[in-house]
Design a protein that fits this description.
The chain is an alpha/beta fold and 433 residues long. Helix content is 53%, strand content 12%. The strands form 2 sheets. Strands 7-6-5-8-9-10 form a 6-stranded parallel β-sheet. It has a 4-stranded antiparallel β-sheet with strand order 2-3-1-4, with helices on both faces. Helix 8 links the parallel strand 5 and strand 6. The longest helix has 47 residues. It is elongated, with a radius of gyration of 30 Å.
Length: 433
């Protein structure tokens, strides 16, 4: 049994490639089942967000990674493998735990990934089994512990999240507020993700390239506007986040002032996180308009990132023993069917030899035959007891998979499907506990 994860993320692949690999919730199961067939795996879970697309696999007889890269490359019509990574066994377990805890996110400690991992498991459930279900359940538990027992999720961790956090302080809460995001690039997407997580009721995405705005809006259940349409809607919003690649300011006093007439005393918060700036500085002098630029936000974001990084050793201290705990469970799970096969094969040999011996002792009474039968079973149980106990002990200290493979080789055993075996079964004496 081999456990791997293969994928791409913001650490290894540019946004244009990542966004083309994103798989919608409604397509997750069909994609997982396609990968199940392509890899020859026994279980698959597919995790797809704006910052990563990863495939978790319980491998079959062959290496699953080449089939995964082939599937990705076929979808994009270009080679994805140079942008990918593969983690195996304990490293794969630790990777998922870190991802779920927000330690591998573009926004260190961001909370949305916990729900995304849960949804990935739910959407892929029909293509997964005992091994990956246990893995994802434990990852959600570990992620929850990291968030509750460390400060890794406290405070703003990026310019975008700092901007949204600042807006939350101004309004008290963003729940039910209306926002517009001007731009549809990476920073704008992060800001939109944070806004949605804060309960923003209506998020409007305006962009010169309407197709990109439409894609982003659909991903976050927002509304896409053509760039020229956004000014007439500005009066409706409480918050405007600007993050375009324009070479000069595109939001001027005249445009904002026109929107103020229909706002009454409702304040307008403008967060300009673009370089060069999108908003003319004079806009900040308008009444009831709160304008903040990148310099206003950078200090907040940097301070929070450093505080979160200080929590990483504490988070790793939570993750490390949980990885070993899961791996011990997996090793024990792999041992159970092999022990059963081992015992069944040994008992078959005992019965064959006993039958051959009994044919030579026709004169024995039924009582004597029963005594010999009992003796043969007792002797076999004693022979099997110590190997069974030692195999379980090896599983408990992390050497179980190696010993299982050795037992298969020495006795020419073919184990059953570990995913269908009760990991709490006790086969050391032929009983279920």
């Amino acid at each position: 049994m081999a456990l791997i994860v293969a994928g791409v993320s913001h650490h290894t692949a540019p946004l244009p490639l990542r966004e083309r690999l994103v798989i919608g919730a409604g397509d997750i199961l069909s994609a997982a089942e396609r990968l199940l067939a392509a890899t020859g795996a026994s279980e698959v879970v597919l995790l797809s967000t704006c910052n990563r697309t990863e495939v978790y696999v319980v491998e079959g007889e062959r290496d699953a990674a080449p089939a995964i890269w082939s599937d990705f490359s076929e979808r994009l019509s270009e080679d994805v493998a140079p942008f990918g990574y593969v983690r195996r066994d304990r490293d794969a377990v630790a990777h998922l735990y870190r991802v779920t805890a927000g330690m591998d996110s573009m926004i260190l400690g961001e909370a949305q990934i916990h729900g995304q991992v849960r949804d990935a498991w739910e959407h892929s459930r029909a293509a997964s089994g005992a091994v990956l279900s246990r893995l994802f359940q434990s990852a959600l538990m570990v992620g929850g512990r990291v968030r509750s027992e460390t400060a890794i999720s406290r405070g703003a961790a990026s310019t975008s999240s700092a901007a949204v956090q600042l807006a939350s302080k101004i309004f008290g809460s963003l729940n039910g507020r209306h926002a517009m995001v001007l731009g549809a690039g990476e920073m704008a997407e992060l800001a939109l993700e944070c806004l949605v997580s804060e309960g923003v009721r209506t998020a409007i995405v305006a962009n010169r390239t309407h197709e990109r705005a439409q894609t982003l809006a659909e991903r976050y259940q927002a509304q896409a506007l053509h760039y020229d349409e956004c000014w007439s809607r500005l009066a409706e919003v409480d918050l405007l986040i600007c993050s375009t690649a324009a070479p000069r300011a595109i939001v001027g006093v005249e445009q904002v002032a026109a929107s103020l007439k229909g706002r009454g005393d409702r304040p307008l918060c403008i967060l300009d996180i673009a370089v060069p700036r999108d908003v003319e500085p004079a806009v900040g002098s308008l009444g009831n308009v709160f304008l903040y630029d990148l310099d206003d936000l950078r200090t907040v974001a940097t301070a929070n990132i450093e505080r979160r990084r200080e929590e990483l050793p504490l988070a790793e201290a939570i993750i490390a023993p949980e990885v070993e705990k899961y791996w011990e469970w997996l090793a024990g799970l792999a041992a159970v069917p092999v022990l059963r096969t081992f015992r069944t094969e040994m008992d078959r040999m005992r019965e064959a030899e006993l039958a051959a011996a009994m044919r030579k002792f026709d004169h024995l009474s039924p009582r004597d035959r029963e005594a010999i039968e009992h003796f043969s079973r007792a002797l076999m149980n004693k022979f099997l007891h110590e190997p069974s106990v030692r195999l379980r002990a090896a599983a408990a200290n992390g050497r179980g998979l190696g010993v299982v493979d050795a037992l298969r080789y020495l006795f020419d055993l073919r184990a059953g499907d570990a995913a269908n075996v009760d990991p709490d079964a006790d086969v050391s004496s032929g009983r279920e506990r």
